[in-house]
Amino acid sequence: MVDTDFAWRLTQGLVRIDSSDPGAYEGEIERYIKALVEERLAQLSHPVLDAVQIAEHEVLPGRRNLMVTVPGLSDEPRLVYICHMDTVTLGDGWDADIPPLGAIVRNDKLYGRGACDMKGGLACAIAALVHTLERVAAEGELPRRGFSLICSVDEEDFMRGSEAAIDAGWVGSREWVLDTEPTDGQIQVAHKGRTWFEIEMAGVTAHANQPWKGADAVAAMAEVVCSLRRAFVALPAHDELGPSTITFGQIEGGYRPYVVPDRAKVWVDMRLTPPTDTAAAINMVEHAIAAAEAAVPGCHGSYAVTGDRPAIERDPVSPLLAALKCAADDVTGTDTTVGFFTGYTDTAVIAGKTGNRSCMSYGPGSLALAHKPNEYVPHADIVRCQSVLIALADNTLWGADGQVGA
Questions:
Q1: What radius of gyration do the chain's Cα atoms show?
Q2: pTM, whole model, 2 decimals?
């Protein structure tokens, strides 16, 4: 069976492959993982493993999702680990002696782009898959419950990989679905929603020495921004997910400092928590635009919703949550904290689009280090998560009740 440092060594290999998005994308790393699985199947060379299925799906040109499935003997929901292969861009600001693709190890920490988000978690999931293949070969029969590893594309952009996995029937409302995002040792089972707007204001140009002859689109947009900020302060907070938040991530307008601007545009990121949803957000945006039009006569606003991801609330009776907490508690000898994920993940997409209540996150590293220079993952976290993911697979695939190991 796999040794305790299998995922640690694999993480180093994965970090050395550039899969930045935008950038090199996932082609090379997908081929690397597929070849690794095929090599292990060839080494094991057991007839029962002929049932293992390897599928690829081109989501975008040259960018393929990969799924490896070990079928189960029963009709029970499959256990699915879904891990994205892409990272954010390599970025600037790294220390001179810590190259983003170097996979440098110092003080039991592995440095590199994607080390915690999420090549460390991807490696742990692959370790659990390899362990499962080896156990199937050793026992000469398939497990009771099926198991799939899905390696997805585009998570760091529009999450089209997880959406394509749903559309292809790879995952739906029944499966027990776990991603391995960095969770700081927690099981994270809930997500704020993510709604995006593009808001535009159209005005009328004029010379700045006669501004009354124009309509200042930038001033009108300032009214929109202030109105929305005030509206968000008044929103109720969710007991677990906390308050809804709003960020005006990018803004542009005008073309000369001495000309009344006739256009302005802002890109808005809203992280919504119940009871506030996209419909409520649209209402707030429409009111803000109307107020701006009244405050700056001659300006007219419009908007487009460019992202609409619902909030995902905790399901306290999820069977996957019970099984995962049992495995994590047993491996760590502690009472594993169950919390929420501040971002949005592939499992949140699956939960939001299919209604699947057994979707959650558990992986090595800290989200606070993701997307930053000098990103790293500790060795101890990789060892812990590999052990937990293997224990969860053992318990749910072979255990008599899905929670107790064979």
A1: 24
A2: 0.91
